[in-house]
Design goal:
6-stranded antiparallel sheet, 6 helices, Beta-Lactamase
């Protein structure tokens, strides 16, 4: 299943959903084409956006990766992701960007993604992300902050 082409499809998506329930941060999967239609988002991701349920998350983001990203940040991070995937053999990327929560608060996130090809959806990214805080020019994830407390 995890060979050269990850076989994400209707049969394997429930397995991914079960794994996603136990992830220590936000986790989502989106199509590489277009605005990045979301295929899956876990509960922690909805919490990061301040959404009570999937319907609220869909309304807030349009259920696309583009809709998840602060509008002024999207073009630069999309370019960065493409550049990283093209220049590295492991198909991994890391970007930092802002989001807008349902309550209007702006937060920073660290996004760690991986690109792969699937038969069912074509190119996809699966992403783990964590909220971040800026202190001057220093980034600290909320997970790191909790461990330091």
């Amino acid at each position: 299943m995890f060979g050269k082409r990850f076989q994400l499809n209707d049969e394997t998506l429930p397995i991914v959903e079960e794994i996603g329930r136990h992830m220590p941060g936000g986790f989502f999967i989106y199509e590489a084409a277009g605005d990045g239609k979301l295929l899956y988002v876990n509960r922690a991701a909805m919490d990061i956006y301040g959404c009570a349920d999937l319907d609220e998350f869909k309304e807030l983001t349009g259920y696309t990766f583009r809709g998840m990203v602060y509008p002024d940040d999207y073009d630069s991070i999309a370019t960065s992701i493409d550049d990283q995937i093209e220049s590295q053999n492991d198909n991994n990327d890391h970007v930092e960007y802002r989001i807008v929560r349902k309550d209007g608060a702006v937060r920073w996130v660290d996004d760690y993604g991986h690109y792969t090809e699937t038969d069912a959806y074509g190119g996809i990214y699966y992403v783990l992300f964590l909220t971040s805080r800026r202190t001057g020019s220093v980034w600290r994830t909320t997970w790191q902050s909790a461990r330091l407390s």
